[in-house]
Amino acid sequence: xxxxxxxxxxxxxxxxxxxxxxxxxxxxxxxxxxxxxxxxxxxxxxxxxxxxxxxxxxxxxxxxxxxxxxxxxxxxxxxxxxxxxxxxxxxxxxxxxxxxxxxxxxxxxxxxxxxxxxxxxxxxxxxxxxxxxxxxxxxxxxxxxxxxxxxxxxxxxxxxxxxxxxxxxxxxxxxxxxxxxxxxxxxxxxxxxxxxxxxxxxxxxxxxxxxxxxxxxxxxxxxxxxxxxxxxxxxxxxxxxxxxxxxxxxxxxxxxxxxxxxxxxxxxxxxxxxxxxxxxxxxxxxxxxxxxxxxxxxxxxxxxxxxxxxxxxxxxxxxxxxxxxxxxxxxxxxxxxxxxxxxxxxxxxxxxxxxxxxxxxxxxxxxxxxxxxxxxxxxxxxxxxxxxxxxxxxxxxxxxxxxxxxxxxxxxxxxxxxxxxxxxxxxxxxx
Length: 431
Known about the structure:
Elements: H1 2-61, E1 65-68, E2 83-85, E3 91-95, H2 97-111, E4 115-119, H3 132-143, E5 149-153, E6 157-165, H4 171-174, E7 184-193, H5 195-270, H6 280-297, E8 301-308, H7 311-318, H8 320-337, E9 343-348, E10 351-357, H9 361-376, E11 379-382, E12 385-388, E13 391-397, H10 405-422, E14 427-429
Parallel strand pairs: 13-14
Antiparallel strand pairs: 1-3, 2-3, 4-7, 5-6, 6-7, 8-10, 8-13, 9-10, 11-12
């Protein structure tokens, strides 16, 4: 769960940072475009300014120019020698640089919506009196002699004012104002219309807003998709883990059941169903291993073969049900009479065998007699019926030349046969 949350937080953080980067890139691009557009305005205004300055210098170097008088123009009263007569028929009017720039400005404003003006903080002609922008620009230029121009982007136009410095030719008109060559005498203003600029800025802002919305929306979608995908994957893995756990529990349960079933099957395969004693198969499996151990360790080993006397007669007299109960009865008495290390098994019918480890034939005989007497002194009771039971026993000891368990059992069987032939209800050692 922690790794899932970390992966989601990490991915969302990366997308968020990438989104901020894209948004900043869009904003920087918009700002760069705006600066570039302002630079274009500056280049346009500065080009016009330089052209006018060139024209002004040309006029100044020529000592002003003269034009033919016409009805719409009068001589400038602030210019010395403003009127000259060539002859009685023609009148020429002197046009200095400032007047020429003002005339060009008026023509331009009528046709191209550009505005030009020569201005000064101390103008000779009141028409050249500065407005607020021009005052602010001239003060800045006067306070900073190294600065050559001042610009301002206003609501409807881009204003550019370049510094006009005193040239020797300027002193003829401004000799009473104590100017020196190189002083800032005023400024030449150029105002450029910004309709196209504003339209372009509006378009780029609109596109930037659209790109910002698309970027944010796309990032939110990606965050949602990534979160949903990671959550789904971890939920699927969690379900798989739960299924695996459930399957593991089921497998363990089935394995346990199978082991118990196998155990029961094994017990069934080695246990006599009637007496719950080990059967013939188990007796031989354990007996063979015990025989080899006894031979290797040179330890005595004996076998007792047991047979219930007249068992057929019991079945015929009392029935097989009573015969089965007597088999159980005899089995319980023998089980109580032997050691836990001894193996008592039902070999079939009314026959039993006892495997005695670390026991010689004489010790086996003592045990056989104990078992025989215990059974003889007991009687089976079923309701009002009482049945007396006796057994015959044959005993044999492992010999040095015995190679298998059958040899010992055969001798014990022969001793049992002799006991039944002799008188029954006795124990005989094979000799």
